[in-house]
Amino acid sequence: MECQLKMVCPRPDVLDLNNSKHDAGGGVGDTYCEDSATEDQTFIPWNQLVASGVDLLRDPRYNKGTAFSEGERDRHYLRGLLPPVVLTQERQIERILQNVRSYENNLEKYVDVMDLQERNERLFYKLLIDHVEELLPIVYTPTVGEACQKFGNIFRRPHGLYITLKDKGRVRDILRNWAEPNVQVIVVTDGERILGLGDLGCQGMGIPIGKLALYTALGGIRPSSTLPITIDVGTNNQTLLDNPFYIGLRHKRVGGQAYDELLAEFMLACKKTYGEKVLVQFEDFANHNAFRLLAKYSSSYLVFNDDIQGTAAVALAGLLAALPLTGGTLADHEFLFVGAGEAGTGIAELITIEIARQGKIKVEEARTKIYLADSKGLVTKSRINTLETFKKPFAHDMPEITKLVDVIKKLKPTAMIGTTGKGGQFTQAVLEEISSYQEKPIVFALSNPTSQSECTAEEAYKFTKGKCIFASGSPFPPVTYEGKTYTIGQSNNAYIFPGLGLGCVISGAIRVHDDMFLAAAESLANEISQDHLDKKQLFPAFSEIREISAHIGAATAAKAYELGLATKLPKPSDLLSYAKSCMYSPVYRQYR
Ligand SMILES: O=C([O-])CC(=O)C(=O)O
Ligand SMILES: [Mg+2]
Fold first, then answer.
1. Atom of ligand 1 minimally distant from the CA of 306
2. Is the C-alpha dihedral spanning 455, 457, 459, 461 positive or negative?
3. Is 193 annotated for ligand binding?
4. Could you tell me the distance, in angstroms and rounded to a whole number, from the CA of residue 283 to the centre of ligand 2?
5. What is the pTM of this model?
6. What pLDDT band is residue 50 in, cutting at 50, 70 and 90?
7. Could you read off the pLDDT of 84-129 as tens digits, one per residue?
8. Which of 306, 339, 539, 544 is most buried as measured by Cβ atoms within 10 A of its Cβ?
9. Domain 499-582 carries which CATH code?
10. Average pLDDT estimate for 412-426
């Protein structure tokens, strides 16, 4: 049987900068073809061999379900395979949303929505984009955390690649098994520190899948360019090892040389398979590997660590946005990080760079503004011999203080940033203390998911008597305190990585430089207006995120060009409109 499906579109759905046939240079600027039930439109043909008939309905990349038009049903052997009704994409979304809303349990909503990704990709992304504020807490934090904990139990169709210790020597073959040849963004985890939920082993896969769904929905990276990967080296989570439905290798974690060799093979295989411009995002690795892997690969690969650098950029954006409320500059603040892991030290480092840059002072001097507290208390010089390398630059000559309230009493920070991964650390006493001497204390409770947040938004406002300027990593509803309503900004790296990734892709960047994160942070902070500040809202609504991602993408790309790290030449004259024109749209295409 002839299996030719001619999909016709004035421009490809792809942002394929390597392939001149589909090059954005020719297609960029064209408007995307609109979905319509009408047949007769003039098309610039773009033909591709894909499936027809039953295979077409079963291929989520091309399936439109009941939205296939009468003509498409005739031409592509679909007649009789669908009920007679022809629905628009909008009507399909209405129906799905109605179903999603009917579930009381968020995990059920997650399963339902993620199922759609495996059935009808464009419908999934249109749903996500059009209802981002409602669905982000489902496909992302906090629900994705629960989904990872129960990933084996809710497992349906596999998505992404699983690479295990057993695959040493054949990682490249595994990458070849992935059907899409033009991968541009990979998110990889080894599952050892999933959000603040700890070691979830192979079941951490929910995170790369969720993050990449956001790369597409929020940042416009086309789905076929995204690849979620989990590296399974075992897990130390006994509950999972004892669970008959656990999906991973059933043994304790393997580290050392075997781990390092697998990671090295993986990184090389990515570069050999997809070229040096494939962006690899490290996600939710434990501290002991996260810093090491970033240091090892960042000078020779296009990589970044989202928990260190993405989180840093988003928190910096929030702090910059808060300055009009507190007055002064970053250097006028005294920062206390509660939690000194990837997020804490990552943000501390980026703030240091920014303070040094703004004040034209040395990095060492900027560091005097920044203190860390970890599970043992204040990070001090007297502890230097036992401190992990990433904490050492922030060890101060101070007496050892173990209790957080006492640390605050002593240091009197103006900003307190929680990255502990442990819920409830900002107790009433802690919040009362910081607001006892500070008129507008900055309080960020960044740990995820919601259950691990250092305090709730309500606690923050209540215990500081409405004084604090608050942001959280996971979403919280607005809080009303003494008649005033505050909108809670979500300081989550989801504001940064989709746009940053877009910037890397459109510029053909070959490295991710710290200055690109600074540019992304400044671009995000610029989105905050007086209206936001009136509600003490430090981050814009996610409903505006695609526009924001385009700005972040343009700012990141501009920085990559400035630093000589961009390879896409000539440089587009208007990076913002170029970024926008490259963004994937999930509107249905018509097939001829
Ligand atoms: O996924 C999120 O919500 C933010 C993040 O990277 C983490 O908490 O590890
Ligand atoms: Mg993370």
1. 6
2. positive
3. yes
4. 5
5. 0.92
6. low
7. 999 999 999 999 999 999 999 999 999 999 999 999 999 999 999 9
8. 306
9. 3.40.50.10380
10. 97
Report how far ligand 2's centroid is from the alpha carbon of 307 (Å): 5
What DSSP state is assigned to residue 306?
I
C-alpha 227 – ligand 1 centre gap (Å): 18
The label of the residue with tokens 């690479």 reads 163
Q: Is 16 in the pocket of ligand 1 (CB under 6 A)?
A: no
Cα distance between residue 420 and residue 454, in whole Å: 7
Identity (one letter) of the amino acid at 265?
A: E
> H/E element holding 27?
helix 24-27
* pLDDT of residue 552 exceeding 90: yes
Structure tokens at 383: 């502890």
* 283 marked ligand binding residue: yes
**What tokens were used for 200?**
């979830």
Domain boundaries, the chain: 7-87, 160-301, 309-492, 499-582
Residue 351, judged by CB atoms within 10 A of its CB (0-12, 13-18, 19+), counts as buried
Tell me if 504 sits within 8 A of 560, measured CB to CB: yes
Residue 492 assigned as binding residue: yes
Q: Which of 16-25, 113-122, 226-235, 574-583 shows the lowest per-residue confidence on average (mean pLDDT)?
A: 16-25
Please provide the CATH number assigned to the domain covering 309-492: 3.40.50.720
Best residue among 136, 140, 141, 342 to mutate for probing ligand 1, ranked by most atoms within 8 Å of CB:
141
Q: Does domain 160-301 have CATH number 3.40.30.10?
A: no
Residue pair 221/15 in contact (Cβ under 8 Å)? The answer is yes
- Same CATH topology for 160-301 and 499-582: the answer is yes
As a residue count, the chain comes to 592
Q: What is the predicted ipTM?
A: 0.96
